[in-house]
Amino acid sequence: MHTPATTEELAALLRDCTAHRRTVALIGNGTKPGWGNPIATDIALSTTQLTGVLQHSWQDLTCTVAAGTPWSTLQAALAQHHQRVAADPLFPSRATVGGVLAANDCGLLRLRYGGLRDLVLGMTLVLADGTIARTGGRVVKNVAGYDLPKLLTGSFGTLGVIAEATFRLHPLPRHTAAFTVRSSEVAALAGLMAALLRAAMSLERMQLRNGAAGFALDLEFATVPEALAEHEERLRTLAGPLPLEPATGDIFLARERLFAAPDATVFRIASLPSKLAALVDGVAQLDRLPGHAAACVADPAGIVTVRLTAALDATEAVLEDLRDRLVPTGGAVTVLAGAATDRWGPPPAALPLMRAIKQEFDPLHLLNPGRFLAGL
After folding, report:
1. Residue 158: CB partners within 8 Å, gap ≥ 6?
2. Strand partners, 125
3. Is residue 140 very low, low, confident or very high in pLDDT (cuts 50, 70, 90)?
4. Fewest 10 Å CB contacts: which of 28, 72, 181, 328?
5. Cα dihedral sign for 85, 63, 134, 68?
6. CA–CA separation, 174 and 182 (whole Å)
7. CATH 3.40.462.10 residue ranges in the chain?
8. What's the pTM?
């Protein structure tokens, strides 16, 4: 395992790999090993020695951080000025900033603050040939025509190694209140979710999930105390006869807990928000089938994370059925953990463009070769 401690050491290592045509597996802290195809490479490169908050311009609500910094370490440093990067990725105590960006794992806070592509302002990366490229600040190499932060976010380390990232910051909420609304019918909670999204309320995050006793909608408000009381009153009015109870912040770890079962397959569905109720109800029906155990957490943006415990052939059948139904309308089903053979599903229409970009950034296909969809 190679662990460069500076961007310059990282660049020198990649120059040597290019000179000797050595393929490279890029690793942060290894929190998401199942996100993408398994790969075999000549060497492994870890960014865990590239750490630290390099600059925090708290007056301007921006910061620059080294990519190997654990997410929780970054947030703890920003919290000293009551600020944060408004994203809540999985495994924050271990996941690195670069890994979170490479996997585009932003969590439920995207409801209010947008995704990682909206929060990252600049980036320093090292290309496969050792070139250091920067956006924002002094430019070592001008990569004209590309928005590097958006392009590298979600690229799974196939285009370059993220060395530093600059983020837009938001204030830490001082007052929050979380609630859970329950129902035996998912349609009632889907209707409540839609009503809350239309209402002028300070929603921080929200999730819809299934459980042994039916369905639950968890939500959190963040605003001043006087408005929190008004929000609770409005919520009770919108919920009507549905049971409502206070909730703790731990309830928003439900997505992370889906990954705790080692024998399960975890996959992510990306679909239209209008399909959320049907998808969550479908997971509940799977949970009632003999030999199946299924649970899910749905994001209002149209992302559903599902844990399914079943025989491999049954799991493969579920994945194939979902892809047949969703891909024609622009949806996708991606396996994140488990033994499923096809992790990505059918390639998108943009595949030729993706291949052209890969060819320009990494023409020898040395970085995480084959980890992304369609062998990218």
Report:
1. 358, 362, 367, 368, 369, 371, 372, 376
2. 133, 162
3. very low
4. 328
5. negative
6. 27
7. 174-345
8. 0.94
* CA gap 118, 278 in Å, rounded: 29
Structure tokens that stand for 70 in this block:
């654990």
* Superfamily the domain 174-345 falls into: FAD-linked oxidases, C-terminal domain (3.40.462.10)
CA angle 269, 272, 276 (to 5 degrees): 65
Is residue 231 within 8 A of residue 221, CB to CB? The reply is: yes
Query: Which tens digits make up the pLDDT trace of 8-46?
Result: 999 999 999 999 999 999 999 999 989 999 999 999 999
CATH number for the segment(s) 7-171+355-375:
3.30.465.10
| Cβ 68 vs Cβ 97: under 8 Å | yes
121 sits in which H/E element:
strand 120-126
Q: 256-274 b/e with 16+ CB inside 10 Å = b?
A: bebbebeebbbbbbebebe
